[in-house]
């Protein structure tokens, strides 16, 4: 956003999301080769150059839901991608980066299926600081464990990156669900990473 002469960045307020957002994939029958639909995608990229205290906030008591759809084979959940990049502030003569905070539930669970569960979703936040509350659910979808050859879905991944080398996240304020889906063969546990280092879950799967 620019000022009227289009030379200078205008002062931009906080970016706030509240209420209930659902980008869940549709369900289908459990028969034959029927599959549910893939969960949706939420992308936000913000470059700040006007305020050192700008925030991207997810607030309220509702949830972001991007589950995969159910069917004979459940489908993959979607992903949430929030990138708050650094921008040059002329008055401060320095780079500034917005912070990211979420106190809502973010539900990205793979779809359930008779033969196969869908994979859990992915959450990716970049910001100057990142604070989390509520629940992050990236579990794999369940399959019918009594069905021969059934496969539970692999859980997803949550990745958090700071614009400096000392990002600290208080995981005591958030519940993160990382289980793979059930089936005759269960899905893999999910992964949580901070600044390209695995901090929780299946670190063998982290890349």
**Assembly state:** single chain
- C-alpha end-to-end distance: 35 Å
Number of strands: 19
Helix content: under 10%
- The averaged pLDDT comes out at 85
Q: Compute the number of helices.
A: 0
Gyration radius, in Å = 19 Å
Q: Which structural class do the helices and strands define?
A: mainly beta
Low-confidence stretches: 1-6
Secondary-structure element series: EEEEEEEEEEEEEEEEEEE
Shape type: elongated
Per DSSP, what share of the residues sits in E-state strands of 2 or more residues?
A: 35-45%
Q: What does the largest sheet look like?
A: 6 strands, mixed
What is the strand arrangement across the widest sheet? 3-7-13-16-18-19
Question: What would your notes on this structure say?
Answer:
The chain is mainly beta. It contains no helices and 19 strands. The protein has strands at residues 15-18, 21-22, 41-47, 55-59, 63-65, 71-73, 79-85, 87-89, 94-96, 99-102, 105-107, 113-116, 122-127, 130-132, 134-137, 157-162, 174-177, 191-194, 197-201. The protein has a 6-stranded mixed sheet, with no helix packed on it. It is elongated. It starts with 14 loop residues before the first strand and ends in a 6-residue tail after the last strand.
Features:
single chain; 207 residues; mainly beta; five-stranded parallel sheet; 0% helix
